[in-house]
C-alpha cells in the first residue's frame, strides 16, 4: 500500500500526530492491564542474573537508549553502559558472556548497529533488539526481539519511532525491576497506571502546536540554538537539537544543563535562543538556576515545562510552553512532542523539505 499523508502537509506532521495512537498500541502490547503488570517478551535469561546492560544504537534511537539508561539504573538498579554503535563496534569493549546487549533501531538495518549486535553475539552475549521493522535483519539476527508498533515511518527525521522506542524501553526497565526485586508489585502497578496515561498526555501536548508555530518564527531567525536539560531531559535536549539541525539546518547543540558553565555559557547572547526542557522533576530547581545564569547574560529563553514548573519558575522568558503535569518517569514521552513540533514548524516556516532533508537517509545501511 502507498503511504498517505492523510490531512497533513507532511509525513512528519502525520507521524507526530499519530503518536498517541501508536504509543498507546505499543504500551498495550507490553502491559497486561487486567493484572496491572508489565508483559516482557520471552527471555532466555532473567534480569536477576544480569549485572550490566550494554546499549548501542545510532541517531535518534541512540537518544532513546540514553533515556533508557536512567530508567534501567533507577528502576532496576542495573548498571548500563551505552555508546553509539559506530564506536561500540570498534572499541573492543570487553563483554562478559551471559550478559545482555540491547540494540535500538527503527529500521533494523543500520549497518553500525547490526555490526554491534553481531559483535555482542560473538562474545556470547544475550542480544535483545528493539526494532520497528519485524522483518528486518536485526529482528532476524537478535536472540530476542522487542517490537515497537509505530507502523511505517516515512519522514527521515524519526518521531513516532522514538516515542515507541521509549515506551518499550520503559516497559523493559519496569519488567527488569520486577525481576530484580527493586520494584514491588505496588510500584509496578503504579508505573503501569502512569504508562496508561501517556497517550492522553501526548494528545494534550499536541494542543500547544499553535503556540509552538508562533515561537518557531523566532527560532527560524537564529544561526545557533542551544538546548539544555538535566536527567532524562538531557537526552531529550540532544534529541531536540538533532531534530532541529536535521530538518531546518540551523546549528543546534544539546547540553546537560549542569555543563553550561563548562563551555556553552561563553556563547550566550541575544542572538542564540536557549531552549530549556524542564519538567517539574527532582532536578527542576537545578535547571532553573542554570536558566537564571542564561538570563543574567542576556540569553533569550524558550522554557518547555509543565504547569507546576511554570508556576514555580516565574521567570522572564522569550516564551514558555506549558505541557500537562505528569509523573516525571514518563516526561520524556510527553516532552518529545513539543521538541518535534518546534523543529517541524521552524523548518516549514523556513521552506525546507522536512520529509526529505538534504544529505540524510532514512536508513544508513552502509558505513
Ligand atoms: C538515520 C535516520 C535517523 C535514525 C538513525 C538510526 O540517521 O535519519 O532518523 O535515527 O538513522 O536509524 P535506525 O533505523 O537504526 O533507528
From TrEMBL:
The entry's active site is 362 (for fru-6p isomerization activity)
Subcellular localization(s) per the UniProt record: Cytoplasm
Q: What class of enzyme is it?
A: transferase
EC numbers for this chain? 2.6.1.16
Q: What is its main location?
A: cytoplasm
Report the domain of life of the source organism.
Bacteria
A Gene Ontology cellular component where this protein is annotated is: cytosol
Question: May I ask which residue range the UniProt record assigns to the signal sequence?
Answer: none
Question: Where's the SIS domain?
Answer: 43-182, 215-357
Can you state the subunit structure given in the record? Answer: Homodimer.
Q: Could you tell me what this protein does?
A: Catalyzes the first step in hexosamine metabolism, converting fructose-6P into glucosamine-6P using glutamine as a nitrogen source.
For this entry, the protein name equals Glutamine--fructose-6-phosphate aminotransferase [isomerizing]
The organism named in the record is Enterovirga aerilata
Source organism lineage?
A: Bacteria, Pseudomonadati, Pseudomonadota, Alphaproteobacteria, Hyphomicrobiales
Gene assigned in the entry:
glmS
Amino acid at each position: 500500500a502507498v503511504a498517505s499523508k492523510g490531512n497533513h502537509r507532511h509525513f512528519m506532521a502525520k507521524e507526530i500526530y499519530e503518536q498517541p495512537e501508536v504509543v498507546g498500541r505499543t504500551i498495550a502490547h507490553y502491559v497486561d492491564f487486567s493484572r496491572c503488570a508489565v508483559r516482557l517478551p520471552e527471555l532466555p535469561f532473567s534480569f536477576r542474573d544480569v549485572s550490566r546492560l550494554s546499549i548501542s544504537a545510532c541517531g535518534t534511537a541512540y537518544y532513546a537508549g540514553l533515556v533508557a539508561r536512567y530508567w534501567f539504573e533507577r528502576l532496576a538498579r542495573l548498571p548500563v553502559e551505552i555508546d553509539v554503535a559506530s564506536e561500540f563496534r570498534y572499541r573492543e569493549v570487553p563483554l562478559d558472556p551471559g550478559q545482555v546487549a540491547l540494540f535500538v533501531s527503527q529500521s533494523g538495518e543500520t549497518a553500525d548497529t547490526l555490526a554491534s549486535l553481531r559483535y555482542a553475539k560473538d562474545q556470547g552475549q544475550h542480544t535483545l533488539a528493539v526494532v520497528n521493522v519485524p522483518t528486518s535483519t536485526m529482528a532476524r539476527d537478535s536472540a530476542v526481539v522487542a517490537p515497537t508498533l509505530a507502523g511505517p515511518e516515512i519522514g527521515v527525521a524519526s518521531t513516532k519511532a522514538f516515542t515507541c522506542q521509549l515506551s518499550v524501553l520503559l516497559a523493559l526497565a519496569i519488567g527488569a525491576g520486577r525481576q530484580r526485586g527493586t520494584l514491588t508489585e505496588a510500584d509496578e502497578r503504579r508505573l503501569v497506571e502512569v504508562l496508561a496515561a501517556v497517550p492522553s498526555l501526548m494528545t494534550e501536548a499536541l494542543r500547544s502546536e499553535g503556540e509552538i508555530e508562533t515561537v518557531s518564527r523566532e527560532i527560524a531567525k537564529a544561526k545557533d540554538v542551544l538546548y539544555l536539560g538535566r536527567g532524562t531531559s538531557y537526552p531529550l535536549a540532544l534529541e531536540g537539537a538533532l531534530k532541529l539541525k536535521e530538518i531546518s539546518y540551523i546549528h543546534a547543540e544539546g547540553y546537560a544543563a549542569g555543563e553550561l558553565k563548562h563551555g556553552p555559557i561563553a556563547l550566550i547572547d541575544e542572538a542564540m535562543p536557549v531552549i530549556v526542557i524542564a519538567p517539574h522533576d527532582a532536578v527542576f530547581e537545578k535547571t532553573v538556576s542554570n536558566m537564571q545564569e542564561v538570563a543574567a547574560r542576556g540569553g533569550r529563553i524558550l522554557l518547555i515545562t509543565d504547569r507546576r514548573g511554570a508556576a514555580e519558575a516565574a521567570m522572564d522568558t522569550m516564551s514558555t510552553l506549558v505541557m500537562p503535569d505528569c509523573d516525571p518517569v514518563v516526561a520524556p514521552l510527553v516532552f518529545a512532542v513539543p521538541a518535534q513540533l518546534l523543529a517541524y514548524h521552524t523548518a516549514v516556516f523556513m521552506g525546507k523539505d522536512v520529509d526529505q532533508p538534504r544529505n540524510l537517509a532514512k536508513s544508513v545501511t552502509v558505513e
